[in-house]
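Write out a record, fold above all:
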Amino acid sequence: MRITTATRRQVLAGSAAVAVAATLAACGDKKDGAASGDKKDGDSGGVVNLTYWHRLPDKEGMTTVDEVVEQWNKENPDIQVTAKKFEGNAQESYAKIAQAVKAGDAPDLSQIGYGEIASEYLAGDLEDVAKEIKEGGYAAHFAAGPMGQCTLGDVVVGLPQDTGPLVYVYDKKAFDELGITPPATWDEAKDAAKKAKAAGKYIFTWQGDESQYRMSGEAAAAGATWFSADGDAWKVDCNGEATQKVAKIQQELLDEDLMLVLKDGRWGDDWKAHLLDGTMIGTVAAGWEPGFMLGDLGVEESSWQVTYLPQFTPGKNSTGADGGSAVCVIKGCKHKAEAVKFADWFNQQIPALVSQGLVVAANTATPETPENLKKLWGGQDVFAFLAEANATMNGDFPYAPTWPAVGSKMNEVGGKVSTKEAKVADIFTAAQETAISSLKEAGVNVAE
């Protein structure tokens, strides 16, 4: 029996997810003629053989994925894993996965960005492993926010590996010299920005090319939920009250010249110049940026620090996601229980993943920052702090299956904000309109 694309869309809409998942399990879902049971994975002699595609850096000085997998294979002779590094960019990897699924020779596991999980499931490239995850009790090993990113209604496609909680980074020495402290609220942020501007410095930056995750992440931090199930449809709320608070404060900072507009976006020449000359002494950043943002500029030691985002509600730290990925089970995997067992173990290899520069999603141990990185961040145990930030992530902020199209439009409008051709609020209006139109074009029900 073949499960249609329309049936998958019902799952993504959040309705009848359990029934459809049961049908998938019972019928052995096929996609374009490639049956999951036809996959040849080299099992022999009672040994389960799994393949895992990843995009981790594996650079010199890091604990490589192959080294970690070798440890697993020694400890688990009945479940042997072969890892393969994908050298292309993320979007190319998804295309390759789709091709492999269609051909019936896909890997069992692969790294999938949170923003692509819904679209990859809609395409029929991911398995539902909610049953295996529940039976293993694996969800308890990970922070609720990133675990929620792996979940579509009652469907769960894998386990979170790394995260990108939005945080605030700042030069403590420069702040001390100006007599300001990292702002706990957005009201404090505006006052501090004025003092910094009087000295020719900026504590915030506008990066138009990063509007998709920067702005959605700040909306999540403010308490927004952009996408949710409403019966058999997706409810879209990209421009609600919480989101409008974000638009208002960001626009005020821009209008009053309290935010440095980076002409060429994140990490361009403008970024480098202003960071190195001390004009930029603070900014909102993704949690994975501290792993390289200073070191890549040749800095060996600094007084920069990492702390929480400014909040709209005093005394309650909350954040949203900017990046991160999961290890997902790919359509056609014959051994889902074993695949999930490996993903759970692999994603808990915290020292090894930290060496790769990841902000781990696992909550089973506190990560420790390498000494060379501590020097870059004024002696702060950055990764221990980021583990705390993980626990403050909005756990109710899933991405719609057409999120890539929404994000592309957000970045387009964000670029126009940089040139004053648009307002910050226009980004959220565009997100709302594009989300609705793209979902409808994909044949997904939208709650009006």
